[in-house]
């Protein structure tokens, strides 16, 4: 194992002073976004606002140093925060703060292990429609969860439909000032974003919200501020110790958070790599993200991920190296040291307005439209995952999405195309519909030729057996030629299907011929005894040159067919390479 690759910050050797200004500007700008987002995301997770800032401080520094990507910014994210809240709620009455810290430790250990063992490839088996469905559902749930904060009314727990019903029943107690603060905040962020994406609209809106909170004395109107939830302590993040006694109750949530964080972080890293041309090492990405979560567990934070929004802002502001992410975490530490009491006066509806924008950003209408216009299986995967987020606890919705992805993978992996080939009028082999008039006209009933495409593993054995049974049902068939050059992953199960077909043909005087096998396939057929059953003279491995093996196979097929109904007018006699 190359240990050196797990120390990616070695690329800072030779760091240029010219890069420092760009990295610092980017880091400060990202910190301005991290402060309001950190507080808002902690609200999503049902945790003290300070924990969101803690998760955006030291973890961002550690992630910046140890991730493979030089530009991904680590910290709390919207979807992971929502999942953390669900995991804590289902942990059976555990202290939320202690549970979140323990959860960060477990997620960090799982991610480091996944990176060291090279398990990041498993992320590729979770389909895009499933990920999109989960993120879309999370966006809707964030919006639903903030409805009571936008109207300063009471909310209830439960699934999305129960929450909406409870909120609607309590609308009579709506505080107009709260609605105005929430919608005004959302509108301001959206307007500033359109003016210039580099403007830290969230921090501007948060500052204006704090000013209006003072001017309107929102507490007197019954509108809570951050200090009413849990005041933000002034000072550096505390050193914390996870409670391993909670590990059993949190395990399901930890696995779900690990999966979501890996999917989210890997997606961000790939997206950035496409823009910057940097080569990403997946295992190092995972270990770096894991170390970031371990840092969160030891400094009062909760599980983190690669942040889409903060990473995009960092690039827009001209970040050049990994020190941009490091400096963003350092600036958040300064905020904790000096500005905690000011953040305490943020009206909760202001944060609800920020979360309204975040929820809107999660619902990618363009991507949803593409999925809905795609194949039915992709639509089913997307809609099934979205519905799962509404009806199930989020950790179970993650597992539902993983199961859907695996089912779709297995369904597609087992797809085997068996296509009949006939000699066309131009003397070349052509694919045809077996039921077509052209197939009947150009087909030799004694010599049938089929091309196989796809994976010849055990999952495709049923399809292969059915296709070969149909191809050999006519007693006229004397030679069945199968071209396997476009297949992969032949195993003992499909080799057994081929052997059974050869035996069935032989019993009535026919033969099975295999064409275009790769070396691995030939070795498998030899070891399993299938080659002897088929007859080594009927095996034609792939050879250099266009259809060389097929020419030899058809010559053998004509010998086996002997005199047959086609006679001198046999279409196969017209074939040429």
What is the overall number of helices?
25
Please outline the major beta sheet.
6 strands, mixed
Low-confidence residue ranges = none
The computed structural class is alpha/beta
Instruction: State the helicity in percent bands.
Output: 55-70%
Radius of gyration: 31 Å
> How much of the polypeptide forms β-strand, as a percent range?
5-15%
> What is the overall silhouette?
elongated
How far do the termini sit from each other? Answer: 49 Å
**What is the residue-averaged pLDDT?**
87
Question: Main sheet: which strands, in order across?
Answer: 4-3-5-6-7-8
Number of E-type strands: 8
Describe this structure in words.
Helix 1 packs antiparallel against helix 13, helix 6 runs parallel beside helix 7 and helix 18 runs antiparallel to helix 19. Helix 22 links the parallel strand 6 and strand 7. The model has no long low-confidence stretch (mean pLDDT 87). The chain contains 25 helices and eight strands. The chain has a six-stranded mixed sheet with strand order 4-3-5-6-7-8. It has a two-stranded antiparallel ribbon with strand order 1-2. It is an alpha/beta fold and 577 residues long.
Briefly say what this structure is.
The chain is built from 25 helices and eight strands.
List keywords for this structure.
alpha/beta; two-stranded antiparallel ribbon; elongated
Question: What are the SSEs and their pairings?
Answer:
Blueprint: H1 17-44, H2 49-55, H3 58-66, E1 73-75, H4 78-89, H5 96-116, H6 128-151, H7 160-169, H8 176-195, H9 201-216, H10 226-229, H11 247-276, H12 282-298, E2 305-307, H13 308-316, H14 323-338, H15 340-343, H16 348-362, H17 365-372, H18 376-391, H19 394-413, E3 416-423, E4 429-432, H20 437-442, E5 447-455, H21 461-471, E6 479-488, H22 492-507, E7 511-515, H23 519-527, H24 530-534, E8 539-540, H25 548-561
Parallel strand pairs: 5-6, 6-7, 7-8
Antiparallel strand pairs: 1-2, 3-4, 3-5
Helix pairs in contact: 1-2, 1-9, 1-13, 1-14, 1-16, 3-12, 3-14, 4-5, 4-11, 5-11, 5-12, 6-7, 6-16, 6-18, 6-19, 8-9, 8-16, 11-12, 11-19, 18-19, 21-22
């Amino acid at each position: 194992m190359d240990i050196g690759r797990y120390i990616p910050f070695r690329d800072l050797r030779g760091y240029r002073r010219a890069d420092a200004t760009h990295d610092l500007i980017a880091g400060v700008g990202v910190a301005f976004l991290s402060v309001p987002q950190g507080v808002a995301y902690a609200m999503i997770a049902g945790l003290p606002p300070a924990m969101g800032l803690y998760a955006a401080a030291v973890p961002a520094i550690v992630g910046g140093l140890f991730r493979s990507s030089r530009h991904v910014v680590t910290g709390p994210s919207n979807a992971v925060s929502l999942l953390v809240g669900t995991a804590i709620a289902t942990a059976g009455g555990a202290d939320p703060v202690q549970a979140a810290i323990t959860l960060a430790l477990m997620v960090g250990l799982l991610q480091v292990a996944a990176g060291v063992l090279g398990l990041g490839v498993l992320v590729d088996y979770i389909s895009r429609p499933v990920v999109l469905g989960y993120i879309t559902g999370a966006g809707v749930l964030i919006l639903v969860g903030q409805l009571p904060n936008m109207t300063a009314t009471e909310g209830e727990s439960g699934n999305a439909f129960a929450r909406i019903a409870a909120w609607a029943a309590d609308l009579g107690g709506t505080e107009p000032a709260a609605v105005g603060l929430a919608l005004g905040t959302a509108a301001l962020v959206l307007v500033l974003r359109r003016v210039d994406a580099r403007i830290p609209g969230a921090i501007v809106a948060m500052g204006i919200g704090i000013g209006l909170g003072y001017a309107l004395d929102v507490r007197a109107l019954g509108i809570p501020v951050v200090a009413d939830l849990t005041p933000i302590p002034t000072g550096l993040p505390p050193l914390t110790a996870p409670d391993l006694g909670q590990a059993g109750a949190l395990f399901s949530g930890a696995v779900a958070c690990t999966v979501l964080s890996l999917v989210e972080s890997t997606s961000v890293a790939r997206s950035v790599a496409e823009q910057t041309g940097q080569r990403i090492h997946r295992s190092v990405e995972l270990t770096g993200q894991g170390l970031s979560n371990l840092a969160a567990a030891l400094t009062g934070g909760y599980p983190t991920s690669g942040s889409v929004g903060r990473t995009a802002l960092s690039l827009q502001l001209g970040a050049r190296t990994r020190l941009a992410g490091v400096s963003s975490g350092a600036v958040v530490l300064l905020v904790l040291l000096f500005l905690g009491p000011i953040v305490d006066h943020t009206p909760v509806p202001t944060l609800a307005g920020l979360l309204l924008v975040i929820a809107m950003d999660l619902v990618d209408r363009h991507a949803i439209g593409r999925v809905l216009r795609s194949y039915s299986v992709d639509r089913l995967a997307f809609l099934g995952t979205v519905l799962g987020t509404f009806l199930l606890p989020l950790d179970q919705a993650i597992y539902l999405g993983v199961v859907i992805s695996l089912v779709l993978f297995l369904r597609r992996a087992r797809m085997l195309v068996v296509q009949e080939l006939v000699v066309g009028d131009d003397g070349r082999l052509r694919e045809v519909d077996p039921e077509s008039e052209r197939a009947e006209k150009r087909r030799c009933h004694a010599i049938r030729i089929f091309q196989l495409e796809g994976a010849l593993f055990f999952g495709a054995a049923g399809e292969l057996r059915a296709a070969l049974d149909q191809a050999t049902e006519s007693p006229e068939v004397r030679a069945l030629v199968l071209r396997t050059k476009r297949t992969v992953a032949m195993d003992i199960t499909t080799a057994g299907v081929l052997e059974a077909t050869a035996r069935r043909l032989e019993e009535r005087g026919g033969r099975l011929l295999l064409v275009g096998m790769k070396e691995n396939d030939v070795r498998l057929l030899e070891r399993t005894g299938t080659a002897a059953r088929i007859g080594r003279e009927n095996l034609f491995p792939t050879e250099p040159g266009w259809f060389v093996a097929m020419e030899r196979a058809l010559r053998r097929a004509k010998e086996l067919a002997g005199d047959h109904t086609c006679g001198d007018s046999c279409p196969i006699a017209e074939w040429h390479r």
